[in-house]
Design a protein that fits this description.
globular, 270 residues, HTH_AraC, Jelly Rolls, 10 helices, five-stranded antiparallel β-sheet
């Protein structure tokens, strides 16, 4: 699917045929294949949305923030929240939509957030999107997914972009050129601002120091290149690592697997 904008099907119509399920008109899953350059323009839903990139990556813009999300993230978007989704590489987006009456308890579910994507949660979302489960099975899956969400820790490494325009300029440049080795002090000089101001902006808006944020940005860029089939040695240099072994170690800490296995797993599944 390669489109400029995206609109959901009428969820009430989709679920109406499943009259035996009390959540039939309020619980629905979809699977969308996206191409590089696909944009789901600013929109909102009547239902809460749980979004997961089974492959590829997504930039989610919501409430003044931009998050880069991959398959280790779940994105929770409450009903009525305006958001935009952009995709710079091919992938698959799995979404589950549910009426707010089915929302987990707690104030934290009233605002957008990112959660750790446990393997079971991803499998359940795929099952809902692909298997057309019966009404009783759908209810069981929904309940198990809700339990997993309630226990899932917040994920704070989605490469959030700073709100401060000067820090955001730095972050955007580094996302485009992850091999840029300039220090925070050098960036500050080029922007005519103090390094302390930039440092505070990164911590306040992303929850990470500049150094931590740059590592995450580099590794996300590396994952994108590996998914495209690039060799590990080339990727290590392209994202700013002089030592391939250091790159492999950092990547394994971040993604739980080596770059070579990640590259094979992604390309083999396409």
């Amino acid at each position: 699917m390669s489109i400029a904008a995206y609109s959901l099907p009428d969820l009430a119509v989709v679920g109406a045929s499943d009259a035996a399920d009390e959540t039939s008109s309020t619980f629905f899953a979809s699977r969308s294949r996206v191409d590089s350059g696909t944009l789901f323009a600013a929109h909102q839903h009547r239902e809460d949305q749980l979004a997961w990139m089974a492959s590829g990556s997504m930039e989610l813009a919501v409430q003044g923030e931009r998050w880069q999300l991959r398959r280790e993230h779940l994105a929770w978007i409450p009903a009525g929240i305006l958001h935009e989704m952009a995709f710079d590489e091919p992938g698959e987006l799995i979404s589950v939509y549910a009426d707010i009456a089915l929302r987990p308890a707690g104030d934290s579910w009233h605002r957008p957030r990112t959660l750790r994507a446990e393997a079971l949660a991803g499998a359940l979302m795929l099952h809902l999107a692909d298997a057309s489960p019966t009404a009783p099975r759908k209810t069981q899956v929904r309940q198990l997914l809700a339990d997993l969400l309630a226990d899932s820790p917040a994920q704070h490494d989605a490469v959030a972009l700073p709100r401060d325009p000067r820090a955001r300029a730095v972050a955007s440049s580094l996302l485009a050129h992850p091999d840029d080795q300039r220090s925070l002090a050098a960036w500050a000089v080029s922007l005519g601002v103090s390094s302390k101001t930039l440092a505070r902006a990164f911590v306040a808006d992303t929850g990470s120091s500049f150094r931590e944020w740059r590592v995450r940005a580099r590794l996300h860029a590396a994952a994108r290149m590996l998914a495209g089939g690039d060799e590990v040695q080339h990727v290590a240099r392209a994202v700013g690592y002089e030592s391939v072994s250091s790159f492999i170690a950092a990547f394994k800490v971040r993604f739980g697997t080596t770059p070579a296995r990640y590259r094979y797993g992604v390309t083999a599944g396409d």
